[in-house]
């Protein structure tokens, strides 16, 4: 959930101080702690405050703030430059915060930080060497630029540091936060490092080895939108719309669901899978306990419908209620995406 901090409010844990009267959006606070055993270059202990991802004409920029954890204020390793510098000290990475990436889960895509000069390792992002090491416990806002996200993308997962620190459901806003400041890093609350212009993003995207967008899994689905699938290696996940499967607030399969169930059964057979898991999901409308029960009843209904189509294939059933949305429950369209029954299977099982 989006938290908006206005000085002198505190988050649980670190405080994000802002200038009087300013508001700093904070999506989440995370912590990174790299192992010194990975390199002879020492690494500190760090906190991150993720502010958001912003789509603008020609590009996308992510903003977050970093500081050394105050619990280690006397630790000689707590230098924010060294943490990010070590992750950048590889061929074609340079001295930037170049390990950040954005994942659009529903599209199976990973957006990589863009490099202005790949050979020299100069990224369209904050250079770690400009971070203030004199006051490492003070929040410093940094940025990384990416190719422009599609207009329909409203949330992403963000990998912050190259060490596995990931924040999910980061909102994507249209337009840049203000004021934009001509600097690679800005003390929190005093503005935002200027995002690169569209020409710089376009050139960096064209020059990026492997392209600026990496495919993590292949999406597919029915032309009428009744089901959609994503594949990662041998595992496939199929989401069937509950609005196709059931009438409102019901758990009895409708006749209109036959074609979608036939399609899903055919995919399972063709994969060579010998088992599958059927998982029910709801939106967040109504009582949580009721939604949990409804998700279980709907999963069992789909399991029975698939059982007759898939003799010899073991089917497990789960209900997860409203706990795993794929979109915010803020519009009718997004709530419809969350009302679904998911079938997960692995092809080529022995």
Largest sheet data: 10 strands, mixed
Number of domains: 2
How many helices? The count is: 6
Poorly predicted runs are 1-21, 34-44, 85-96
H and E string: EEEEEHEEEEEEEEEEHEEEEHHEHEHE
The number of distinct β-strands equals: 22
- Termini separation (Å)? 42 Å
* Overall body shape: elongated
- The overall pLDDT, averaged over residues, is 81
By secondary-structure content and strand pairing, the structural class works out as alpha+beta
- Radius of gyration over C-alpha positions, nearest whole angstrom: 23 Å
Helix content: 10-25%
Q: How much of the sequence is in beta strands?
A: 25-35%
What is this structure, in a nutshell?
The chain has 350 residues and is an alpha+beta fold. The protein has helices spanning 80-88, 198-207, 242-245, 258-271, 288-307, 332-338; strands spanning 3-6, 23-26, 28-33, 45-56, 59-68, 101-104, 109-112, 115-117, 122-123, 140-146, 155-159, 166-174, 180-181, 186-187, 192-193, 213-215, 218-221, 227-232, 235-241, 275-281, 314-319, 340-346.
What can you tell me about this protein's structure?
This protein is of the alpha+beta class. The chain has 2 domains: 3-215, no CATH class; 218-346, 60s Ribosomal Protein L30, Chain: A. 18% of the residues lie in helices and 33% in strands. The protein has 6 helices and 22 strands. It has helices spanning 80-88, 198-207, 242-245, 258-271, 288-307, 332-338; strands at 3-6, 23-26, 28-33, 45-56, 59-68, 101-104, 109-112, 115-117, 122-123, 140-146, 155-159, 166-174, 180-181, 186-187, 192-193, 213-215, 218-221, 227-232, 235-241, 275-281, 314-319, 340-346. A hairpin with a 4-residue loop joins strand 6 and strand 7 (109-112). It is found in: Cell outer membrane. Keywords: Cell outer membrane, Membrane, Signal.
